[in-house]
């Protein structure tokens, strides 16, 4: 027997019955099968103006929902259980809303242009910011607080019970705070000052604090660590390069050796035009006399300085250009001898005074030279003088890369004062507070210690996003310097990520 399901149960037909015979018998009894209903037509999205108005209303609805849920509804339900509340308004509004496929640009625009979306931002609704926990107000930057408030003000349909409502609002606050922190500009004021000057700070250095400390620790990871370390070292190279350019007046100087070579080149051009004159001798003698006023120079070292002067200036009047260059070179050799990274403080002071005599000689030799040659020698003298603190700070390392702190101390020493008494340096002071106080080396030992199989796997997985974060675009995005108005992107992103 052949069994066929029917509305009345199972119909039986003898074996071998043709399908068309069974079909005719069933149609005679039950009629022809009804065609399948067509799928419901897709509803057209609301108009742009309607969706823009919805975006404008979102922060108002969200604030009203919070007030209703926490203040009004509990009283209403105590008086009249089952009474309608703001959650019903939100649900009905969401059910009726017709969004287009993809990003709802109109609603996003409404979110952004509503002043309530800027709560906690630069001036914004400060009353809203005061409602945040004290810890967040103290620790979170204004952009993060603004983002958190913007997230909280996004209405939510998760309003069935207080736990669900609280969890949803907490998630919105966390999302908004994160977006506000990233999109609103994580960079500290000092980091922004460096970025404006062309220093390529890393995301961790830009954010400062805990983020900077964590980034420093991550340099020990395999693969990923080398990317981070390269970025942090590059920032230090930028600072040293910017200082060299400022100190010498010559652009394009990438490191200490290049700068010293360029300064020496200018000096060499001037040598054929040099002649001994009273100005050169008297300037050097004045520098010797001024050394007596240096409280850090002891009596024995001053006597030694006098002997250096007497020895090298004994036949000054008889020197030609090459002889004057040799005199200059000998003074430079003595200065370098007493200013190496192993030199004592007294030796460093002695070297400073030798360099002062050398600079006095050079500046005096400009008198009476042809204008072009005098100009070139002046540039060389400026470069030489400017490179003294840079050379001192960089000489402590074989790679001649100084930390901002070392550069700051060397500049103060040249000015014969303490770091605390120096006027604020727009390059070095922000660098001291932003960049690390040590120079990042290859880090090979630290990374080898982490070269376990899990470490290599994790480092490899993190390499691609790390490279993206430390790229020029990634650095600018994470430091909040990608484009003007970036701080207002968080409400737009929250709108785009809305359920």
What is the compact description of this entry?
By secondary structure, the protein is mostly helical. Helix content is 63%, strand content 2%. It starts with a strand and ends with a helix.
Strand content: under 5%
What does the average pLDDT come to? 75
User: Cα-atom Rg, whole angstroms?
Assistant: 38 Å
CA-based shape = elongated
Q: What percent of residues adopt helix (DSSP H or I)? A: 55-70%
* Largest β sheet strand count, sense and barrel closure: 2 strands, antiparallel
Count of separate DSSP helical elements: 24
Strand order of the largest sheet: 1-2
Number of beta strands: 2
Poorly predicted regions are 118-141, 441-462
Order of helices and strands: EEHHHHHHHHHHHHHHHHHHHHHHHH
Counting helices, strands and paired strands, the structural category is mainly alpha
- Terminal CA distance: 55 Å
């Amino acid at each position: 027997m052949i069994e066929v399901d029917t509305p009345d149960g199972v119909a039986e037909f003898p074996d071998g019955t043709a399908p068309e015979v069974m079909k005719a018998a069933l149609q005679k009894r039950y009629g022809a099968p009804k065609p399948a209903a067509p799928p419901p037509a897709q509803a057209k999205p609301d108009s742009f103006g309607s969706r823009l108005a919805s975006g404008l209303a979102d922060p108002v609805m969200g604030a009203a929902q919070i007030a209703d849920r926490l203040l009004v509804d509990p009283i209403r339900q105590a008086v009249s259980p089952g009474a309608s509340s703001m959650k019903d308004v939100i649900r009905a509004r969401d059910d009726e809303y017709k969004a287009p496929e993809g990003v709802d640009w109109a609603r996003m625009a409404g979110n952004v242009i509503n002043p309530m979306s800027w709560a906690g931002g630069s001036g914004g609704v400060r009353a809203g910011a005061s409602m945040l926990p004290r810890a967040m107000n103290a620790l979170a930057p204004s952009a993060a607080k603004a983002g958190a408030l913007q997230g909280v003000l996004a209405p939510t349909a998760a309003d069935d019970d207080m736990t669900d409502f609280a969890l949803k609002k907490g998630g919105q606050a966390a999302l908004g705070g994160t977006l506000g922190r990233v999109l609103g500009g994580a960079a500290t004021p000092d980091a922004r000052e460096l970025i404006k000057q062309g220093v390529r700070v890393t995301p961790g250095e830009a954010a400062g604090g805990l983020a900077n400390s964590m980034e420093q620790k991550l340099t020990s990871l395999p693969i990923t660590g080398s990317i981070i370390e390269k970025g942090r070292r590059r920032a230090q190279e930028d600072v040293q390069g910017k200082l060299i350019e400022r100190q010498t007046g010559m652009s394009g100087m990438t490191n200490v050796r290049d700068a010293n070579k360029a300064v020496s080149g200018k000096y060499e051009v001037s040598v054929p035009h040099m002649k001994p004159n009273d100005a050169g001798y008297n300037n050097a003698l004045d520098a010797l006399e001024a050394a007596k006023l240096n409280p850090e120079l002891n009596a024995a070292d001053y006597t030694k300085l006098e002997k250096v002067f007497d020895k090298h200036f004994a036949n000054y009047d008889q020197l030609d250009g090459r002889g004057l260059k040799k005199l200059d070179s000998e003074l430079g050799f003595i200065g370098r001898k007493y200013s190496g990274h192993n030199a004592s403080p007294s030796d460093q002071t002695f070297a400073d005074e030798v360099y002062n005599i050398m600079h006095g000689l050079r500046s005096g030799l400009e008198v009476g030279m042809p204008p072009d040659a005098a100009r070139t020698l002046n540039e060389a003298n400026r470069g030489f003088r400017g490179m003294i603190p840079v050379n001192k700070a960089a000489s402590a390392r074989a790679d001649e890369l100084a930390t901002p702190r070392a550069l700051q101390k060397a500049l103060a020493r040249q000015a014969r004062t303490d770091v605390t008494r120096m006027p604020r340096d727009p390059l070095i002071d922000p660098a001291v507070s932003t960049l690390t106080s040590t120079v990042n080396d290859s880090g090979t030992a630290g990374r080898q210690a982490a070269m376990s199989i899990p470490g290599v796997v994790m480092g490899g997985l993190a390499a691609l996003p790390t490279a993206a974060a430390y790229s020029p675009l990634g650095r600018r995005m994470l430091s909040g310097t990608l484009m003007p108005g970036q701080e207002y992107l968080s409400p737009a992103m929250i709108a785009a990520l809305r359920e």
